[in-house]
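Hey,
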Amino acid sequence: MNQSEEEFKSALKVNEGIEQPSPVNSEVIKLMRDARKEILSADEYALGILSGDRVILSKAITLIESSLQKHLVLAQQIIEKCLPHSGKSIRIGITGVPGVGKSTFIEALGKHITSKGHKLAVLAVDPSSQRSKGSILGDKTRMEQLSVDPNAFIRPSPSAGSLGGVARKTREIILLCEAAGFNVIFIETVGVGQSETVVHSMVDFFLLLMLAGAGDELQGIKRGIMEMADAIAINKADGDNIQNALRAKSEYVNALRMFPPTLSGWKPVVETCSSTSLQGIDVIWNVIMENNQMLCQNGFFNQQRLMQQKHLMYETIQQALKDHFYHDKTIIQKLSEFEQKVIESNISPYVAAQQLLDEYFGKKDPIKD
């Protein structure tokens, strides 16, 4: 028996058959590579956003939030392409004292809105740690039902230490969400503080959430924030707390009467609601729609949007100047030196700041010049 016959009779002999397919699917690999592709062109991003692709929208928002210069340039190109398709939404700012239940309220109101056929985007700004600059970004876990709603998009964004916890890029993100087809935008602030002023400058309706039965109802909240509110919603008005909520409503109504009339002619209202039983949630939405109808009829809606654009221009100039100053090579080299002088009380903070500015502008007195 020759060698070939021995091989033929061997138990290890594998007969030739149909050629087996490759264990690696090239099409799947291609799709995975495309999905992992970090940077698309501005046209690709814009096309994806306008078609409602949420993955592309999320990636574009990440570019806006990035501090890298190449990302910043690309983000501005995307915004320019999406700008003509934006502006067709109701922008609602939502804030409230700690523990008021903002996330639960937003989910309850959000589900009510999407049930009426609207598309909702929730920009929930989480507080960044001043030490680690990290952020929890847990709003999606707190809004379990809304996060799986096909007509809702939740984007938690770290505040990165910006004023009062409001992300500096929120305005640009609003534009992209509107271009993606979302006609109701929620902007949740971290809590009662300076951030409300920033949010008020970018929304059409400002809603203040409050609690009842937590001591003096008017304590712990600034007059200026109440003056900005288009409506006050007293949350957790259920069970044994209903009577407390009604008393709080009466107190707030009386307090609002002391404030001067609004420029729009709208009279702020106070309502009670429960995010768990959903009692009064529909009333809050009706108030928002009534406000929108009134402002559109008297022309204040468009007027306010134009004033917000003007405010954004000045804010962008200020931020650009600030960024350019701190990225200047000369300033970077001298900043730590002046910091040490201030710490050791060898120079006052005002003189140090002026000398750094003189160095930056390259002249002795930039104010006079």
